[in-house]
Design goal:
This protein is α+β, with helices and mostly antiparallel strands. It folds into two domains: 2-97 and 269-331, 2,3-Dihydroxybiphenyl 1,2-Dioxygenase, domain 1 (Roll), CATH 3.10.180.10; 110-256, 2,3-Dihydroxybiphenyl 1,2-Dioxygenase, domain 1 (Roll), CATH 3.10.180. Helix content is 21%, strand content 36%. The chain has seven helices and 18 strands. It has helices spanning 2-16, 36-46, 60-66, 119-128, 199-209, 223-229, 284-293; strands at 25-33, 50-58, 72-80, 83-92, 110-116, 132-133, 139-140, 152-157, 163-168, 186-196, 213-221, 235-242, 248-256, 275-281, 297-298, 304-305, 315-320, 326-331. It is globular, with a radius of gyration of 19 Å. Mean pLDDT is 93; it is low at 7-19.
Length: 332
């Protein structure tokens, strides 16, 4: 089913795509949490995010956007540097937990990559706070890898099991802003990474339909990559995408091992595995039409107009990419 969905995207996008700039910028990643106070404490006290807003939303607009009847959600927006995340606790109805046997090559994998000024110090902070490891420890990617050599990275988990990455760029890699001295350890969010089955099919969606640009590519393998992802034999094709503003989206295709499980077919917005990448567009109506033209799977019941002034923008839609990852496209 997932393979057929990808083939349909590839063929239809080849015929219908107008290369419109639907995605003006990546706004944030929104994730469902089980206990808001616990999650806010984790992201603020350990990772130094600052709370920006704390609201409750409910009603028809919310139900139609998120596809969950009877939804009442506490939404907390948190900021680190120039970037933000949103944490969503479903007060009703509660959803399913993240599968305990999740692996980094399963197709529901998605993380945010937080840039740090010093990997050793950042790892020490995480150890002092007893975070759950997802990597065996920080890894320095080898110098033979032209596009990734010298990058230091470490995966861990938040209280609900969402994977999080800390990342340190060497001189010559990453945006210049990550090397501006400001005395802070945790600096901001460079990108969100998602596991995909077929990079080319995903590019048809994110690049050709939504209008994002390829910013870099690499092929990563070896013991460092295996220990970073905690997947024996990990061999990845990695493609970095950027819009005109905001964090990037990184596509992770496992060339090996190829046994990652597909995105859960019954996933809903109140399940803890749920994360939405929120994109800002100039025209949600035109975006919805372009997505409908290629038979994109909608989670929302079409365009949701913010009648009750509860949602972030004036209009929004929630769809799934070729692998099932939720993507919200919002007009301010």
């Amino acid at each position: 089913m997932h393979r057929l969905r990808q083939i349909a995207y590839f063929l239809l996008l080849s015929i219908s795509c107008s290369y419109a700039q639907i995605a003006q910028r990546v706004d944030l990643v929104r994730m469902t949490v089980s206990d808001m106070d616990h999650a806010v404490d984790f992201y603020s006290r350990i990772l130094t995010f600052e709370k920006v807003s704390d609201i409750e939303v409910s009603g028809e607009d919310v139900e139609h956007l998120e596809g969950v009847f009877g939804a009442r959600i506490r939404v907390v927006r948190m900021k680190l540097g120039d970037e933000s995340i949103e944490l969503c606790e479903y007060l009703a109805p509660k959803g399913l937990p993240i599968p305990l046997d999740s692996h980094s090559n399963d197709h529901w994998f998605q993380h945010i990559a937080i840039i740090v000024s010093d990997m050793d110090k950042a790892y020490r902070v995480l150890r002092e706070n007893k975070v759950e490891h997802a990597s065996s420890g920080p890894q320095r990617l080898p110098d033979w890898n032209k596009n990734a050599g010298g990058i230091e990275a470490f995966y861990f988990k938040d209280p609900d099991g969402h994977p999080v990455e800390i990342l340190h760029f060497p001189v010559g890699k990453g945006a210049d802003k990550w090397r501006q001295p400001n005395g802070k350890l945790f600096l901001g969010i460079d990108h969100t990474a998602i596991v995909v089955r077929d990079t080319d099919a995903s590019l048809k969606f994110y690049r050709d339909l939504l209008g994002m640009q390829v910013a870099g590519e690499s092929e990563n393998y070896g013991t460092e990559q295996e220990h970073l992802n905690n997947v024996f034999g990990a061999h990845l094709r990695i493609t970095a995408l950027r819009a005109a503003g905001g964090p990037g989206i990184e596509l992770l295709e496992y060339l090996a091992p190829s046994d990652g499980r597909p995105f859960p077919a019954n996933e809903r917005s109140n399940d803890l595995v749920h994360r939405e990448t929120v994109l800002i567009t100039a025209n949600a109506v035109a975006a919805a039409q372009s997505l409908q033209n290629v038979h994109t799977e909608f989670v929302s019941s079409g365009i949701v107009v913010n009648q009750n002034q509860q949602l972030g923008g004036t209009k929004a839609i929630l769809v799934r990419d070729p692998d099932g990852h939720p993507v919200e496209i919002e007009q301010k």
